[in-house]
Structure formats: C-alpha cells, structure tokens
Amino acid sequence: MGIVMGRNQYGKAEVRIFAVNRDNPRHTIKDLSVSTSLRGDLDAVHLTGDNSHCLPTDTQKNTVFAFAKEAPIGEIESFALRLGKHFVGTADGITGARILIDEYSWRRIPVGGTGHDHSFARSTDEKRTTAVTIDGDRAHVVSGLKDLMVLKSTGSEFWGYPKDKYTTLAETNERILATAVTARWRYRHPDVDWGKSFESIRATMLETFATTHSLALQQSLYEMGKAALDKHPEIAEVRLSLPNKHHFLVDLEFCGLENNNEVFFAADRPYGLIEGVVTRDDVEEAPQAWYSLPEF
Ligand SMILES: O=c1[nH]c(=O)c2[nH]c(=O)[nH]c2[nH]1
Questions:
Q1: 97 or 296: which carries more pLDDT confidence?
Q2: For the whole model, what pTM was predicted?
Q3: How far is Cα 208 from Cα 206, in angstroms, rounded to an integer?
Q4: Residue 27 falls in the annotated catalytic set
Q5: Do 288 and 169 belong to one domain?
C-alpha cells in the first residue's frame, strides 16, 4: 500500500485591491478581494520540494495588481477570466486555475442629483462574487452574492412538521422570516452582460423572497432559485445557502403585557441552515465549477 499526493491547488488568498479610475473628475472605484489558485503538474513540489512548476503566490499577487493597472478591471467576471487564462496560458505546468473575487458595494454619497464625484459610503456587508474555473481550454463562471440580509415581518408560517418527545417548537402561522442570502449561479456560456445579468438576478430573487408567502424557508429557497432560472436562460443552476435567523417572540406576561407579535429576541446562534441546488433537468452537471467553493 502506497501513499500518493491527491488533489491540490495553491495560490494567494484575499488579495485586497482598491482601484480608482481618475480619467475624469467623476471617479469610479473598484474594491475587491481576489484569491488565485493554480492547479496542474505539481507533484514535484509536493513530493520533493522541486519548485520548477511552482509560480510563487507572491507573483500571483503581483499579477493581480499589475492587471488592474494594465487595463480597466471592468466586471469581476471579465477580470477573473483574464487572470485565470493568463496563468494557465503562461505558467509552465499549470493547466487549471480558480479565481475567486468578492466585490464590496460602495455607493456615491448622495450630494446633489447624481451623488458626489469622489466620495463614497458603504452601509452593507453585501458582496457581489464570482468564481471562475479554468480547466485547460474550458472556462466555468459561477457568480453570485453573499451576506444580503433580508427580512419579512409577516407572510411566513411554519407548521405541520413531525413531532417527537424532543419537540418544543410551537407551530405558527405568523413569524418573522430573516436570512442572509448567499447565492451562486452557474453561467451556461461566457457571452453575457455580466453586470446587467447580476442586477436582474439579484432583483428577481429579492422580489420573490418578498412576494412568496412562505410555509418554510426551504420553499422560499426553491422559489427564489426557480424565478432566477425562469427569467435567465443564460444560467444553468442556482445554489443557495440561507441561515434561518430566528426571531423568538418575547413572553412579556411577567409584567402583564400582551405581546401581539411585536417584540422579538433576535438570536444570532444557533441558526437553521437551509441549503439547496435549483437546477434545470436538461443541463449537464459541472462539478468542477463548484469544487472547493466555500459554502457548497
Ligand atoms: O423554515 C423553516 N424550516 C425548517 O426546517 C425549520 N426548522 C425549525 O426549527 N424552524 C424552521 N423553519
């Protein structure tokens, strides 16, 4: 029985890059966290420490910064595709790459009609994301968002579940439903207006969360994924990870007050974690597009 080196990848994680376009006085900015991972003929570095195919993670980091200067960053999907193709096309022994990008959402400070030219505010943790996988001459693009906080103050119920001797949860037809959405969707091809597609999928999922009368967070998850797929032929599947941010009704009887679903304890943990894949029944699966992705 022998011991062999298994699947591996390596790169620089969370390169924080901030870029300003100063072409005119109305600046545009990009605030990104970029992670690079390279795959390929890397047995030698693991087995003997032979670094001849080991493009340093420091060089990968420098490449990210240089690419941001050499051409406009543009949409995160295009930037990730450029980086991934560069590494696979130029680094000896490297046959695959995974580029992860999270984009922080700054907005112009609302001064005047169109917002300030060079001052910005960020009031949310929400990030737009992409995960690009280059596998030889194939490319997979999985985009999404994370930490999008949403809440419904009515229109959510939970009842009809199995009960056993450990059950204490009361059935309810009136509860708060809150979650922090992490969603990723896989594109069928790279011929996409990335920004427009992102905005529309995000809006569709938000609208569906709002308008679905929810009997379970699982039902909301499916409806959100389905609505995105119905409206967007360019995507093959949607994966969602939804922590159920429980809001417990506070018993105020101790001081003689009736609590008519008005005052809750917003617990941060433990939380239910509802996860699922919503897909088309006629598309080919692409496990490589998802391999080692956080959350999925
Ligand atoms: O929407 C829900 N789904 C569950 O599976 C679950 N389990 C639970 O305790 N509360 C809820 N709510």
A1: 97
A2: 0.97
A3: 5
A4: no
A5: yes
